[in-house]
Amino acid sequence: MTEQRYLPDADGVTEFEATASEVADDFLVLDGTYFYPEGGGQPADRGELAWDGGSATVTTVRKNHGDVRHYVEEIEGDRPEVGDAVEGRIDAERREAHRRMHTAQHVVSRVVLDEYGAETAGNQIHADRSRIDFEPADFSEADVAEIERLSNEAIERDLRVSKAERPREEVEERTEEGRALLNLIPDHVDPLRVVEIEGFDYCPCGGTHVDSLGDVGRVEITNRESKGEATERIEFVLRD
Ligand SMILES: [Zn+2]
């Protein structure tokens, strides 16, 4: 069992110490980690693990039941043993890019739900570009310009982004229809981690986010594409 230490609100931590709890050929499990395991449209963190007498590059991170597996390559020296202290260093630049992108995605999703009544059916975040699929939607070029304008207007207000664990009952009550696929989260998951943009958006989410909307930068929508009858895909990048 790995404690996911970035939850609920330590999204900015990129260096930490932990203890090895499983050592396999191609992965290490720690008792706790700040590495983000891929999921929810956000890629895994990358970085390094180091211990007394060795180190390795973390190429991807995945959840496996209650464990978080750090898949490693380029192992130098001997592998650690279970119980050894391990130092983790997350690629901080990449993590920061994912934080900005994921928060931008929440802003765009909220704007589109409010203005066009379309739900976010899927999203994929990358460090340099991201996309969101909306349903039901049929955007004109003018709509796309309006979505970009309203998203940047919200970001310029520099609203506080808070993350906290909330009782499931509250989350079910406060999450607006169409904002999150709550029924896909197993019933036993309670409390839920919520990302709240002050007075603007409330959404259950386990991803990494900035603490203040101003840190996102400026959203620039680079492409709009129809993906079937009532689905629209929007791609965006962030500018400083
Ligand atoms: Zn999210």
What descriptive keywords fit this protein?
240 residues; alpha+beta; Elongation Factor Tu (Ef-tu), domain 3; Threonyl-tRNA Synthetase, Chain A, domain 2; four-stranded antiparallel β-sheet; 3 helices; binds zinc ion; Ala-tRNA-synth_IIc_core
Can you offer a commentary on this structure?
The protein has 240 residues and is an alpha+beta fold. It folds into 2 domains: 3-90, Elongation Factor Tu (Ef-tu), domain 3 (Beta Barrel), CATH 2.40.30; 95-239, Threonyl-tRNA Synthetase, Chain A, domain 2 (2-Layer Sandwich), CATH 3.30.980. It is 20% helix and 40% strand. The protein is built from 3 helices and 15 strands. The chain has helices spanning 92-116, 141-156, 168-174, and strands spanning 3-4, 15-23, 27-30, 32-33, 47-51, 54-64, 67-77, 85-90, 119-125, 130-135, 161-166, 192-197, 201-204, 218-226, 232-239. A 6-stranded antiparallel beta barrel has the order 2-3-7-6-5-8. A 4-stranded antiparallel β-sheet has the order 9-10-15-14. Strands 11-12-13 form a 3-stranded antiparallel β-sheet. A hairpin with a 3-residue loop joins strand 12 and strand 13 (201-204). The longest helix is centred in the middle third of the chain and has 25 residues, at 92-116. The chain starts with a strand and ends with a strand. The relative contact order is 0.17. The mean pLDDT is 97. Zinc ion (ZN) binds next to helix 1.
